[in-house]
Structure formats: C-alpha cells, structure tokens
User: Fold these one by one.
Assistant:
Number 1:
Amino acid sequence: MHYTIGEAAKRLGVAPSTLRYYDKEGLLPFVERSPGGVRLFRDADFKWLNIIECLKKTGMPIRDIRTYIDLCFEGDHTVAARQALINKQRQAVLAQMAQLQQTLSILDYKHWYYEQAKALGGCGAMGTLSPDAVPEEHRAAALLLQRANKE
Amino acid sequence: MHYTIGEAAKRLGVAPSTLRYYDKEGLLPFVERSPGGVRLFRDADFKWLNIIECLKKTGMPIRDIRTYIDLCFEGDHTVAARQALINKQRQAVLAQMAQLQQTLSILDYKHWYYEQAKALGGCGAMGTLSPDAVPEEHRAAALLLQRANKE
DNA sequence: GATAAAGTTAAAGTTCACTTGAACCGTACC
DNA sequence: GGTACGGTTCAAGTGAACTTTAACTTTATC
C-alpha cells in the first residue's frame, strides 16, 4: 500500500508543497517513485517523517535534520555520531524548557499584577504597593523584570 | 542617567540595529530622544525591554507584542484586555512545554535505541529485538514514532 | 482515447526578524 | 573648531522555511 504526496500531506497535516520542499532539501531520500516519477510514500516512510517532525519541533534547522538523515543512511559506523546528535538536541530541549519555565513564572506574575490592578482600580495604584505586598511565589519573577541585564 | 542605543544594546545582549528595528515596529514608544534626535534609554525602559524579551521568548510575533505595548499605553480601561493577552500567552507556553516534554521522551528513546545498537553491533540487529525488549519508560515514545498520524 | 484531478519541476514570491549600506548628523574631547 | 565615534533615517539585502505560479506529465475514470 502507498500514499501519493497529497494523501501523505493530509495524514501529516502539512501542505504537499512542504513535503516537496523537504524532498528537495534532501530530507526524504527514502521516498520512492512510480515509473512515471510520482512520489510513493510507504507506511514505513511515516516513521521517518515522524522523526523529522520531532526534530523540527525542537527547533532544529532543516540543514541539521538533513545531516542526521544522511548519517542514518551511511550505515552502522555512524551510530555513535547519530547518538551524539540526538544528545545534543536533548540538551537543547532541556534548555528550552528551563527558559519556558522562567518565562511562565513572569507571565504568572503579570497575571497576578493585573488581578491586583483590577482590584485597586488601575495600574497607578500599583506603585503605592509596598514591595513585600508581592506574594512570595511571584517575587523571583518580579525581580527578573526589574533587574539589570547581562551586566 | 541614560544609555545610548549602543550601551542599551550591549546591556541587553542584542545588536543596536535590533533596537532600531523594534522602535520602527512601534515596540519602544517609551524611549525618549535628545534635542538632537538621539534615543535616550532610561533605567525604567529596561523594565519594558525585559517584558518584550520575555514575550519574544514565548514565540510571540513582533506584531502581537506591539498590540500588548499599545494596550499598556492606552490606560487602565485596557487592564482586562492585557490580562487576557497574558493568559493566552500563558496557555501557549504550557502547550509548548507539553510538546517539548513529548519530544524529549522521543529523544530519550532514540538515545536508548542507539545505546542498544552499539551493544548489538549495528542497527540491523535491532529489528530482531522483540517489542517487549523496549523498556517500559520508552514504550510510549516508540509508539509515537510508529503510529499513524492525524487520522 | 478523452478528460479531470492531482502529480512533476524550476523559478519566483512571501513572511518574519533582522542586518547592512549609504548618506548624513550629533556629541565628546583635544 | 576639527576630528572621531557613534548616533540618525531609509532602502535594500539576508536567510530560513515555505508557498505560489507556470508549464507540463501522470494517473484514474468514463
């Protein structure tokens, strides 16, 4: 059983042009063609497409994803290199998550801030609040917004 | 005390051209000018720049950040709208973190997979592994890579 | 075999977020 | 006041990741 590019695109939730672009960039060396030149996506190919989707979600650029795919097709002597690449991306994801966690704490503080502002009838009244009126769980975030940067 | 655009850029760890770009896009309506037209960044302005940096880290586009800044300068009647915007972004961050968590589990599985491949002397041998040779903690991730998409 | 829908390529266009270049101006120091 | 450094604007350029267009071919159905 096989899928045309339109069917595969629908299954993946992307535009057919996106898959053609990926192919042109060398991300889909595994996709075969019909005698007439039409791309044939096999079930097994979706395993690859899922990996590509996963790496894309980590923010990895197309070029680096290609490097990984290329390594996969170069045989067993690249296993260590592939693992290293996966580990590097794992570290990048952990860093992103830590960053998002900090960002989230700031958004939570802002939510609290506006809740107070609504209660006090405006942002002007917020200035009159003593610094220890900020609940403990928002102190760190409040500081992040005020602090001097990268000094 | 005030900073020139170059000093402010250094403190924030960005290029001066980036700040000029943000200004042109309406992200810095609070920055004043010298009589000669030179931008003067005050200490208070860095509070704003930190918020911009924070929103940018959530992946919010410049246009939407501008909307938020604009709301802030429209007075107290926009407090609820600002809070709604912050909440929306909070949800977006939570979704991103959930996505990264899933991605991380796949990268962890891949790490395990290559560890096995190294031990067995190649990826070919991995096919001979029975499905329940996959440790419990990696089963879900392995499924994510095999499963049919968006059906 | 005709037709329509969907496939193919190559090249150009789009959007986003900056960056660079050209020409010019403001500020600080000697 | 002259010089150098860094500021200003506007327009054009960049790179990433697609998308669109044009011209043409393949494939499925009648």
Number 2:
Amino acid sequence: MSDSYHHGNLRQALIDAGMKIINESGEETLSLRKVAALCEVSHAAPYAHFKDKEELIEAIQSHVTDQFMKELEKAVNEAPTSEKALVDMGRSYVAFFMRRPDYFKFLFSGQNIVAHIQPGKDHPEDYPPFVLLKNTYLDYINENGIKRTKDEQEVDILKLWASAHGLASIACMSGVEVSFDWEKKISTEELLR
Amino acid sequence: MSDSYHHGNLRQALIDAGMKIINESGEETLSLRKVAALCEVSHAAPYAHFKDKEELIEAIQSHVTDQFMKELEKAVNEAPTSEKALVDMGRSYVAFFMRRPDYFKFLFSGQNIVAHIQPGKDHPEDYPPFVLLKNTYLDYINENGIKRTKDEQEVDILKLWASAHGLASIACMSGVEVSFDWEKKISTEELLR
DNA sequence: CACGCATCTTTACACTGTCAAGATAGCCGC
DNA sequence: GCGGCTATCTTGACAGTGTAAAGATGCGTG
C-alpha cells in the first residue's frame, strides 16, 4: 500500500487515469501511453490488464455508466410517486448529459457503443439504465392500475427511452442551442405521453 | 479528363475514396494516407484541399447528409397529406440509419458531430434535416388549422426530432436487438403525439 | 512568353497501438 | 525456508498515423 503500485492495484489506477485525461482534455486526447505514463508505468504495462485499448475504454465507459446510474437511481428513489419517478428519471437522463456532453460522446460514440453495455454484451435489455427504466415503468402502470399489453408496454418503454436519449443526443450534438430551458417547456405530462 | 487527376478533381476524388473506405471496411479504418493512396496521390496531397483530417471527414459527412436528405425529401414529397409527410419523414429518418448503422455512427460520433451541420456551423437550426422537419411540421399545423403557440411549436418539433433521432440512436447502439419491427408497433398516431 | 499560384511530392518528425522477449517478484507446494 | 510458477511489468522494436516544411510541377493569367 505504502509504495503501492508497481505491485498494487494498477487496472483501477489505469481506469482512474483514463477518467482524469478525459475530464481534463477530452476523450480524443486519450491514449494508452498517456494513461500508462500517468500511472508512472511503462507504456506496455496496461497489456497485463487489458488485451486492447478497446478493453481499457470499455472499462472506463463502465465506470462512467456507474456514475450515470447512481444519478438515475437517486432520482427514482427520491421521487414520491412512481409517476414522478418515471418523469424525474427522464429529467435526470437528459440533465446528466447536458452537464457532461463529453460523457455522452464518450459513451455513445465510435465503435464501442455496444461494448460497454455491461454484462450481457449482446443483450442490450441488460443495459442497466434500460432495466431501471423498465422497472420504474412497470411500477408506474401497476400502481396506477393501467392495463397495457406486452406489445404496448414495449412501445411505451421504447418511446420513453427514445425521447430522453434523443433529447440528450440533440442537446449534446448541437452544442448550446438546444439547451434552452427544456425542463420548463417539456412538462411532466408531455414526457409521459 | 482522360488521364485526368493529377490536375483534375482531387478533393471530390478524396471524398469518394473516403466513402468507399467507410463503406467497405468501416469508419474506424479511414485514414488520410489511405484515401490519398486510393487516389494514387502522395500522402500529403490532401492538405492542398483540406487543412485537416477533420476537414476531410466533415466533407464526407456532408456527403452522407446529402444522401440522408434525399431520402427524407423523397418521403415528404411522396406523401399524400402533410400529416402523412410528417410521419413518413420520421419513418425514413429511422429507416435510413437502421439500414446503415455505420452511417449513424459516422455522423453522430466523436468530436465532429456539430461540425458537419453544414452552412451555419454554430447554428444547428440550419441543419437541413431540422429545417425540413420544421417546414413539414408547419405545413401540417397550418393545413389542419391547428393553433399552437411559438413555444408549443418548438416543443412539438423537438419531440418529433428527439423520438426519431432517439429511436435511430437506440437501434444503432444496441445492434440488432431494438430492430424488432418497430414500424408495426409505433403507429402513425403514436409518432405524432 | 513568363510569372505566380495552386497543386502535388518528398522528407522528416512525433506519436500512436501492439507485440515479443526478458526482468522481477510474490505465492504456491514441498 | 526453498525452488519454481505465474502474474506483472520493462525494454526494445515495428508499422501506421497526422502533420509540417521545403521543393518540384504545371496551368492559367498577365
């Protein structure tokens, strides 16, 4: 622990270093050699923990997704009703990426967009934010006695997801312009239908 | 023309070569030197036409956006009513990217997402697809005598855009999974409200 | 015709990801 | 406690990348 590293917890240090670089100078400046240097370790050391640059990036993406999930869960848990939970989750979804457009680009850019959909890589229905949305939605329709067929449910969820994700995407794509006060304009009910 | 090039229309040739590489082996394999090689030209030749790799990419993106716009316009023009035009445009929007997920990644990935929003780079409201959407929407509410305040109009448009773009994004992100038959599930009316 | 300028080539450099071969050291069975 | 195994890390090398500087080339305009 004292002179830790060297034999300590590289891997996590590499992930942290990666986050630092992204935060300070943007994703496009991230390189294997820089993270290695930041950890004061040779440029090939990362290969003991990640087979690829790709794999390092996926690990960092998972880390960002964790932060993202914390905010979504917070929004859901603090909401008084399941309806408000659904709406607030949407707000948090967009708000998170409007605060950190670079994170949006980092998570949903390039070839690795699917990859960091953590455990079941080929099963996006395991993507944590999606799972949370689904559960919150089910709570909502159950608690309010709303009857929907399976198909209708899928459509509802997809629409909720798509509008939040689309808004986030547009906001992050077009820089400042779309970041007018969307919260005031898109009301609670609007988001729900 | 005969032995054209060398002094002919490089620039366009570079863009075409770039498209070819992207189509054949994906965006991530695109490099300045490869496009140059494909045009049988030295690796620094592109710098006579583009100050940057970035600038080449923007030109290629514009080219893709042109194709995209052609499809959107076709959908709008062929629709019998302005209402159907609005819906079909949404369909085309998603369909285009579901057919070419690589184009989605190429257009909306990395640092250059804003850049190719062609003429007024810092004014996304000039982004051609957005303009088309806006006009189609205005036709729709005018022809049907629908009264909406300016603010409501903005929200309507943003919602339409966000759901189409979000759907496209989700479809392209998560690979195959979301590409269940959404056309059947998301009906005309659904897309409109 | 000659000049200028856009275009293109050559050369060079720093940086990148990746790999192979070797060093190092902690942990295991004995 | 000791020898070896294995995970970890270093060193050195290589091909590919973007980019800049300096020179060649040739077309169009004066």
Number 3:
Amino acid sequence: MNIYDIAELAGVSIATVSRVVNDSPKVSEKTKARVRAIMEENHYTPNVFARGLGLNSMKTVGIICPDVSDDYMAGSVAYLEKSLRTYGYDCILYCSGYQYQDKVNAVELILQKRIDALLLVGSNYAGDGEEASTKYIARAAREVPVFLINGYIHCKGVYCVLSDNYQIMYDTVCALTEAGRKRILFLYDSNSYSAAEKMRGYEEALRDNDLPVRKELEIFEENKILKVRDRLLEQEDLEFDAVVATDDGLAVGAVKYARQKGLSVPEDINIIGFNNSELAVCCEPELSSIDSRSEMLCKTAVDSMMMVLNGHPVRHKKTIPCCFVKRRTTNF
Amino acid sequence: MNIYDIAELAGVSIATVSRVVNDSPKVSEKTKARVRAIMEENHYTPNVFARGLGLNSMKTVGIICPDVSDDYMAGSVAYLEKSLRTYGYDCILYCSGYQYQDKVNAVELILQKRIDALLLVGSNYAGDGEEASTKYIARAAREVPVFLINGYIHCKGVYCVLSDNYQIMYDTVCALTEAGRKRILFLYDSNSYSAAEKMRGYEEALRDNDLPVRKELEIFEENKILKVRDRLLEQEDLEFDAVVATDDGLAVGAVKYARQKGLSVPEDINIIGFNNSELAVCCEPELSSIDSRSEMLCKTAVDSMMMVLNGHPVRHKKTIPCCFVKRRTTNF
DNA sequence: ACATTTAATGTAAGCCCTTACATTTTTGAC
DNA sequence: GTCAAAAATGTAAGGGCTTACATTAAATGT
C-alpha cells in the first residue's frame, strides 16, 4: 500500500496525496477529507525512508549519554524523549560510555543516521580533556545543531544548558561555614565541566570565608556508597565536620562512614548530596541534597532546539539555578 | 558526496560501490581496497534513507518501555542498547508511560519507523488487562518480531524472556516460614504479569507450609519508600513478622516503617526487596534483595532476536532463574 | 590454444516519496 | 458573460541506494 494506491483509490494524483499527508494548505478541505478517509480505511502510512530521502530528514534527534543506567541521566533521557515526542520527533539513543574515544565513535555513528539535531546529556570534560571534547562536539555541530545538557563549550552551532553548579555550591559552602563548619570535605566523581564548576564554587566560598583550601579535603572517587565509605574509613587521620558531594551516592557513602565511625549526623558532620535522587530519601537519616532541576534543564534544551530548528535565534548558553533541599543530614 | 561520485572517482560502477559498502563477496579484494580508500578520503557515508528504501530496513530496533527513569528499566535499556549496537543495530526509544492507550499509541508510532524488531521492556498486564495487551502486542508481531522482557503472552511472533519470579518468590517465602516467620506481608506495586507471578509464588508457598493466605497481608502501593512507610504506619492493627516486596523501593519503605515503629530489623521483622538495586545497599540496614539478573534477561532477548532476524527458530518462552542476595535485613 | 566455467563488473529498473513547475479549475470584479 | 488572478490539482524530475540480469574478464580443463 503506497502513495500510488491511495492516489488511485481517491482518484487524485500522488502529489495531492503527498500534500494531504503533509497537511499542505494548497489542497481543498474537501479533497483532504476524502483522501484522509481513504488513507484510514487502508491503514496507509507513508514510508519513512522515502520520506526521509525526499525531505532529507526523518524528524529524529539523536541522544548521546554516557550511561542511561545512571539515575540522573535516565531521568533526563526520559523527560527529553517524552518532550521531543510531543513535537513529533523520535529519539535514537546512544549510550556511549565515558571514554573519550567511545564518545567520538558515538557521534560519528549517530550522525550517519541523518538526525535533525543532537543532544548530549551529561557533561563534557573539563580541564585537560576540554580541548578534545570541543573537537568532536564541534565536528557534530558542523552537521546539525548540538545541545549540551550540563556541559559547556563555546562553539558555533552548540547550545548549552546548564544548572548553576558554581553558584549553588558557593552558597551551600557559605551556609556551612556560617553554621560554624570549618573543615568541609569535597567529594567528587568525575572531571566533567559540571564537577569542575562545583569545585570552583566550593573553593571560592572557602576563600571568601577565610578558610584554607586543603587539597586533602578534595577526594575523587567514582564508585558510590560502599566504596566511598571504605575509602573514608581508610583515611584515619582525615578530619572533617561537613561533606559536600557532587552526587547523592557519594554523600550516602559519607553517611555510612559516619554511622560506622559512631559519629552522629548532622551533629558531628553535616552531609549534603547532589541531584536529589531517590537515594536521598532512602538514606538514613534522609539526605539533604541539591536539586539541579533536571527537568527544567531538559525543557529549556528542547525549547531551544525547536527554536533553532525553526530558524529562530537562540542564546548559546543558558543557566538554570539549582535549589537546596533540606532534609536531615544538615542542621542549618 | 554520493555513490555516483565515489563510483566516478574509483572508476567503477555504482553497483560495485554498493557492493563494497555491503561487503559483498562478489567484489575482488583489490577493487574493494581501492574503493574503500576513496570512500575514506572523501568521508563518504551512504545515505541511510536511500539505503532503507532499497533494503526496507534501517538496522534499527524499537524499544518501548513505560519509563526509563525507573532504575530497573534504565538498566535494561542501557544493556540492550549497548548490546544491539555491537550487532550494528540502532535503537529508537519510546517511553510509553504505563497507561494502556499510551502503549497502544507507542506501538503504532514506532511501527511506522519500519523497525526491524520491537523490544518491550517491562511487563504486560496480567489478569483483566491481559487480553487487551495481547491485542496490541499481537498487532505489532504481525509486522516485526516482538520480544518481551519480563512479560508473557502466547502469540505467534512474540518471544518472551522472563525471570522466574514465581520460583524465587516461592523459595523465599518457604525460607522465611522455615525460619519461623508466620505472618508475611506481600508488598506489590503493579498488576503486571511479573507481579502476578510473584504473588502466585508467595501464596503457594504459604499454602504448602500450612499457613493461611490473608488478603489483608497483600498490600498494593505503587509509590515507593515514604508512601509505603506512611501507609504501613496508618494500618495500626496490622501485624507481620516479615515482608517480601516486588521492588526494593517498597521494601525500603518497610524498613523505614520498622525504624519509626521502633522495631528492629531483622530480629522483629525480616524484609526482602526485589531487583537488587542501588537502593538496597543505600538502605540502613542494607537490604536483602532478589536479583532478577536483568542483564542475563536482556542478553537472552538480544541473542534470540539475532537468531530470529537471521531466520533461525527460537523458543517462544525462556525463563531465567533469579537469585537471593543476602544482606542485613534477613536472619536466615 | 580454445571451449567452458566461474568470478568480476556493469546496466538499468525499481523503492516511495517531495516539490518545482505546468496546467486546469474556481472565484470575483467589472 | 469576460477576463484576470487565485486556488487546486497534475506532471515529471529527482533523491541515493539495492539487486536481478546482462555482460565482460579471468581461470580452469583438455
């Protein structure tokens, strides 16, 4: 059942059928109705491939994310997919992994699918890796508009939406110091742009409150909970009265550490997670966390995308403020 | 840059170029090498649309899941995507939501994409909804092979891979009764086929151990943790000395309930979750759980799919055993 | 060296749409 | 009732690939 069959049945030309399919204003309502009826009757749906060939687009956007099994990214992908679908776009998903080369391959492969736009969920590398990630992202941007969620590079055709990680971390650490905390541990799990921004906020807040930035208080550990707990237990001489983490899993590890050490939370140690995930409410005591408002980020990204795809100008960087969610691991 | 350009540059016909692209054995290695070199040089990649038109396939499989932001499904999707990619297939993701009509729409829409196969992650409805879900799944199966992960219907073209929820639940409840537990609460969060199987295992184990099946001990609550905790706190007259749940979130709720009530776990109450998610290790005390070996399920599904797509016969139902993961909320 | 397979390549007919341009029909002004 | 302008429809040329079939080149046998 193709366009010719429908044209024949409806007694019109294929051009007219095509116009009906695309709801072109150049067809009288009368014929539109008639052709539509016939399409329904015969369960006709246009062949997407032929359509793609003609239009050079299949209303599809690519989503690359390092790992959808990660809670935070899964939430983003879920929202993005639903949202894009309301605009009539399908999503091709690519879980790239975290390695640089894998990401490059992902971009290369997904571009072959002639997607209309590309969404990169999860941050690009900061510091040393920055230049490299700029390169492959720029490569993609030469073909289609690219949208970074929680990442930032400056490049034509790349649009970035990020939560204001710097600011919230700055504010949070200030609040901790004002509450009298002096030795604040910073737990982080990646070298992404977002994590770097969080660290920047942490360090500047310390400086502005006349506290020293101690490198031994900045701990990198990408495995969550148990690994973090054990890691902290090992470092016997390490003293701290507060923890801020770049992810809830890390913070829960700190809570487990405190329990094992016989320290009470929040009295002895204040602990603050990030992302406000289900782990935060699962944790005992329930974990104070920072909500990065991922749905808002995603919504903003999708809105921007629709603007760009419709030829409207869009700002290349948009920042969304985070908010602190007080639970029981803090006492300010 | 299209196939004609390459043909011209290589001094061969487009047919030959096409054969090189498809690695046909009908081309001499010499020309293959030459043509490949030229394709590389010119960054040629075949147009997927034209390709799809000709082959009527784009090496794409559809994945429909109610909600990727769910931990368990996210894990499955991540694994499926990675695994399918190694076979050269891309994935179109559709998060349908849990409503019947939404699932029907999802199937309808995703079929228009001329996918090569369809993966349904997350269970179909059991009981009343069973017939209905059979209908739309059968509809899909008329167009492409369909693979259900953790669901079961009997229908031509539908291949089911499920964990042995009945058996593990039966065994677990037996173990609890043997450890002297008499009033075992069954917490469930959906009316899916999987949940129904779990309940069947639960009830039969009770019967086989001469314990009554009390309907007041079967509690349905789809919201996790806090909602479950509060729900249990409300039911003041409800007594139980063990809990089995169809999901870790529910079980964590039960743990929170016990803590609030001043009951100790596992002494006063044994609690067992399902899915062995991150919540289980986050929970305090760490939650014993059942691992449904979702990766194994997914692997089996993908293997089956490749068999089917290559025209080999495959069993319509495959069952994967689960395994119990002992942590600190049980004492047997 | 010549006939006969077999391997390698080429030709051309689809696959099913979109759309610029050409043609026909309708509308409205006079 | 004309005629010009506007609206509706049709014609036909792609778009880039696959593949059956036709053709030519290479390999094998005698």
Number 4:
Amino acid sequence: MKQDFTPIECCDQVEIHEPLLKIVSDQLPPEDELYDLAELFKIFGDSTRIRILFVLFEAEVCVCDLASALNMTQSAISHQLRILKQSQLVKARREGKQVFYSLADDHVRTIISQGLEHVEE
Amino acid sequence: MKQDFTPIECCDQVEIHEPLLKIVSDQLPPEDELYDLAELFKIFGDSTRIRILFVLFEAEVCVCDLASALNMTQSAISHQLRILKQSQLVKARREGKQVFYSLADDHVRTIISQGLEHVEE
DNA sequence: TGAACATATGAACGATTGTTCATATGATGG
DNA sequence: CCATCATATGAACAATCGTTCATATGTTCA
C-alpha cells in the first residue's frame, strides 16, 4: 500500500473499471476492520496454536500439561498462550501455582471447523 | 516441536495428566491435516489477500483492475493471486491479454464472515 | 523466610513473509 | 515479425514470527 491513489483507467476499459471502484468503496469493510480480521486469521496460521486450541476444545488445561501433551517446552507454549489470550480466543484462571486455560468463546470452534471442511476436501 | 517425547508426569498430577494425553491422541487430527489447516489460515492472515477476496466476493476481476482498485502495484497483486490460487481459494480465466480471477468456492465466504463476526464484537 | 514448583517474559536467533524492481512470458493488432 | 499491453516471476531486502535460553514473577509449604 505504498502507491498513491490515482483514478487512472486500467486495462483501457473505462466501463469496467469505474463501477468496480464504486463496488470496492461501497462493500469493503473499513481499513481497521480488515486489519483486525487479518490479524485474527494470523493467530490461526500456526500449527502450535492450532494444536493448543484443539486440546482446549476437549478440556480446561494447565500450561504444563499442554506442554507435555503437545511435546513442547513450557516457554514456547506460554508465549503462544499469551498471543491467544491477547486475541481473546482463550482465557486463563489461576488455581494455586497452576494456570488453567480454556476457550474464550465458541466462535473459535466454528472458524476452525469451517477451515477443516475446506482442508479435508 | 524440537523436544523428544517423554511421558513424564507433569505438575505432579498423574491423575489429570494421563487422561489428557489420551484425549489429545484420540481427538487431535493427524499432523499433516493440522499443518494444512494452519497453512490455510495463514493465507487469510494478510490484509492484502483479505482485500483481494472481498473484491472477488462482488465480481470477477482482472489483475490490473484489482491493482488499481486496491491501490497496489500489479506485481504485488499478482504475487498474492498466485498464493491464493495455489491454495485453491481463487481460480483464473484468461480472456485475451487479461486474466480474470474469481472465488474458487463458497467456503471462503463462510470462513471470512465467521472471522468478521468475531472481530466485530 | 527460603526452597521448590508453575508460569511469564525479554533478548537473540534463524526462518519465513510481503513488497519492490527488473525482467520474462503471453496475447493482440498492425 | 514487432511493438504494445497484461500478467507472471525471480532475486533481494526489510520486517515479522516462533522457538530457545536465561531469568523473573508468583504461589505453596515447610
């Protein structure tokens, strides 16, 4: 998005180009919403985080169990949990020394299962 | 995913840990499916590609019009279209000098609108 | 209070990503 | 065939990302 906006006709086809620009400006969600949307999908775009979410589909789990279940270091899991929490996909509850994580809401399930459908074709 | 798997009890809580490992191995999709899933979401995790898809929600559009509508260089758009096409999210149709792109199927719409719902809260 | 355990976090590193620039490929019309 | 337009692509670069390592914070129990 470096280039300045210039309403130049493209492809020498003024009659296609003009209504297109109108459609785009009418239908495109605002810039910050598009950014947030991309940001959300970016979270799902890592298989460690996906695996964490799949475990949380089944149960509320502490960091240490997540690490051992997914066979990764506590640190790596903790870093990823922070990202998931910041994006409101996951919530944390402390119980003594341990912190238990669970899904923040059910959108996550829906989004991921839609993705799975596409992948499984 | 560097660490070797060792079935060590975690958090000194054998009674929690054991069934968890079972759940994980029973419910977790196979490794390659999780990878594909993450790979799919990675595609949506860029606002340029999201914007391209939003335009394609409305119409079949040639590269050059996409570039001017989204105010980006033809090269940048073309690179991104290649990624979208490789992931089967978009298909291409040549008509003379121009190449028109459109959505490959309707999963894309569903996935993105699910994402939007989450973001708009 | 101090040792032991669970979790969080900052810095550093290699790996991946998106854009730009230059150029190649492909199609059309003269 | 050649010039021109539309698109594709490879190399290069800065920016971002995920993991590791070392260490800090927070909690429990003796």
